[in-house]
């Protein structure tokens, strides 16, 4: 069983940057696609970014394209989300999640295991 632990969230002004990290323990996730998803207050959880098993392909929600970058370091069992030009609407709890599959999925229900989340707050 794999456990995911996110870190790097916090309070930042609009236009600022944050880098989220997700460390896996218990077993390796090198053979699985990973993603970052978020949930804003009063809204449903949504897909933000995903990366394939090998890291050869990534996918982003339209709202974050050009501003966010997902990457992975399988040697460190870690997935990252670099967030730049942050906007107040990026505020929410950011979750790292994994799939028992090699390809990226955007539906939230397609993710099989989750971290506890890290809070990101962007002030205007």
Radius of gyration, CA atoms, in whole angstroms: 13 Å
What structural class results from the helix and strand content? mainly beta
The portion of residues forming beta strands comes to: over 45%
Number of strand elements:
11
Q: How many helices does DSSP assign?
A: 0
Largest sheet: 7 strands, mixed
Give unreliable regions as ranges.
none
* Alpha carbon gap, first and last residue: 40 Å
What's the overall average pLDDT, rounded? 96
- Helicity, in percent? under 10%
Molecular shape: globular
- Quaternary organization: single chain
What sequence of helices (H) and strands (E) makes up the elements?
Answer: EEEEEEEEEEE
What features would you describe in this structure?
The structure is a single chain. With 124 residues, the chain is mainly beta. It is 0% helix and 48% strand. The chain contains no helices and 11 strands. Strands 2, 4, 5, 6, 9, 10 and 11 form a 7-stranded mixed β-sheet that branches. A 4-stranded antiparallel β-sheet has the order 1-3-8-7, with no helix packed on it. A hairpin with a 4-residue loop joins strand 7 and strand 8.
